[in-house]
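User: Please fill in residues for this 153-position structure.
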């Protein structure tokens, strides 16, 4: 589960820190408020490509950090297989862009873009208007304290 998202020097954002709560979190706002910028920053944290024109101040570094709680054993097992061991059930992905170069880290250790991308496949699924749902997926939805399992083909 995504716990925190920290963004600095991206688009309209000087500095933002968002803490997410368990359950459904919804980003709302007027057009141009920065919702897409926040999703884009999460994409950057997972090794996505940067369009340099969205850096707010070219003299300062762009920084994104995503903190995840790893509470599911199958996620922990896959991450261990990749060589990531966590003392706590948290994983911190961070990227810093400065002077045309990226610094990529997971839990403080330097990693490759490929490692960030592989970790992203374990940690998060994003669905929405421009992020299609996979052809086959089981989804658990919670409404009024009851869980509903749905399988999509």
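Assistant: Residues filled in for all 153 positions:
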């Amino acid at each position: 589960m995504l716990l925190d998202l920290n963004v600095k020097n991206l688009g309209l954002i000087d500095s933002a820190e968002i803490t997410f709560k368990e359950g459904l979190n919804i980003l709302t706002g007027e057009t141009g408020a920065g919702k897409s910028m926040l999703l884009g920053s999460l994409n950057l944290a997972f090794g996505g490509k940067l369009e340099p024109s969205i850096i707010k101040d070219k003299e300062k570094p762009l920084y994104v950090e995503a903190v995840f709680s790893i509470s599911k054993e199958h996620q922990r097992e896959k991450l261990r297989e990749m060589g990531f061991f966590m003392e706590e059930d948290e994983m911190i992905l961070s990227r810093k862009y400065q002077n045309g170069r990226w610094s990529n880290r997971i839990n403080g250790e330097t990693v490759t873009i490929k490692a960030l991308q592989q970790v992203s496949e374990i940690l998060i699924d994003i669905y929405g208007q421009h992020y299609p749902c996979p052809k086959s997926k089981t989804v658990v939805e919670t409404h009024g304290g009851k869980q509903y399992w749905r399988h999509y083909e």
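For context: The two ends are 25 Å apart (CA to CA).
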